[in-house]
Amino acid sequence: MRNLNQVHLNGLRAVEAVSRLGSLQSAADELGVSVGAVSQQVIKTEQQLGRQLFERTNRGMVAADTASDILARLTEGLRHLSGAVALAQRSDDQVLTISVAPVFAARWLVHRISAFSERFPDVSLRIDATDRLKDPTFSDVDLCIRVGRGHWPGCRSELILQQRIFPVCTPAMAEGLQTPADLIKLPKIVDGRAMFTWDVWLSSVGLAGTEIQARHVYSEASLCLDAAIAGQGVMMAWQTLASHQLQHGQLVAPFGPPVKTGFGHYFVVADTARRICKVETFKRWLRTELEEDMERLAKAAPLLA
Fold it and tell me: Do 268 and 133 contact (CB within 8 A), yes or no?
């Protein structure tokens, strides 16, 4: 390993971050330094290695074809280093750190934390609510819960629940609705960051291609749900987002069927993650809670069964 003395570790970190994240700005954000500092570190590292790792193009810095194997091994090596540091920093094995999207945390998980604590009093949860998928090998996160198609580089994923969407609105707004086509006349609440469009559901009821005019557009699904509860319009929701409100009568699902989007809720861990008892305990508990909640949802909203 003496050859490592010829290259500065900070430079290798900069090179790896640019390669993995795809831009100087993203690498600078992750490393907590300026874009100029990252650029200088990359240049210095290329000089120390005696070869060019990136092509400078109009699109930014692109990994050179001849450097792909080098960069892949560098990423793998830093993953192991990060994992070792994270393992050394874990002073309390009874604290379970979970990274989860804010909307799932606020609209589903938070209602059930007390039930987990009552059943497993020796495990303390630390919820890191963020939309950004944190690489479990580059942080102290034990488990991530994300919505996607199940493929994240360097990670293993387990499907928890397939995402199905359906329209929801207040009981008062639903009065008088006869067919799905009647929804077109209602004001629409649209999630500007949604991974699907209204047409996914409209196609299932023979309304493919129908133009949707949004009355209000929000950048966060939780805000869309609050707007629907306030009677501002009808929105396209999914199980874990609207389950609580549907079961308590704040919202109704005037029409089915619930339609698959191709996405799902997944447990996500690093490829190199070892089995940890507290993680497996939480996963089993959450699956059971989710199954029971979906059964209650089907009773509260029969059209979604």
Answer: yes
| Cα separation, 72 vs 271, whole angstroms | 15
The pairing of beta strand 155-168 with beta strand 234-238 = antiparallel
Calpha distance 83→154 (Å, rounded): 13
Instruction: Decide: 53 and 66 in contact? Cβ < 8 Å.
Output: no
CATH code for residues 2-89: 1.10.10.10
Number of H helices and number of E strands within the chain? 11, 10
CA distances from 10 to 7, 39, 118, 253 (A): 9, 12, 45, 54
Residue identified by tokens 């792909």 is 68
3-state class (DSSP) for residue 131: coil
Side-chain-side CA neighbours of 34 within 13 Å: the count stands at: 3
Strand 214-218 to 188-191 pairing: parallel
In CATH, which of 2.60.40.10, 3.40.50.150, 3.40.190.10, 3.40.50.720 is domain 95-161+264-295? 3.40.190.10
- What pTM does this model have? 0.70
251: tokens are 């919202």
Model pLDDT for residues 157-180, shown as the tens digit of each residue: 999 999 999 999 999 999 989 999
Instruction: Please choose, from the candidates 171, 168, 148, the residue with its C-alpha nearest in 3D space to the C-alpha of residue 158.
Output: 148
Q: From CA 133, how far away is CA 145, in angstroms rounded?
A: 9
Name the residue among 247, 225, 233 with its Cα closest to residue 297: 247
| Burial class of residue 203 in the structure, from the number of CB atoms within 10 Å of its CB (0-12 exposed, 13-18 middle, 19+ buried) | middle
- Mean pLDDT (whole number) for 116-143: 83
Domain edges within the chain: 2-89, 95-161+264-295, 163-261+298-304
Same fold? 2-89, 95-161+264-295:
no
Query: What is the spatial distance between Cα 244 and Cα 234, in angstroms, rounded to a whole number?
Result: 17
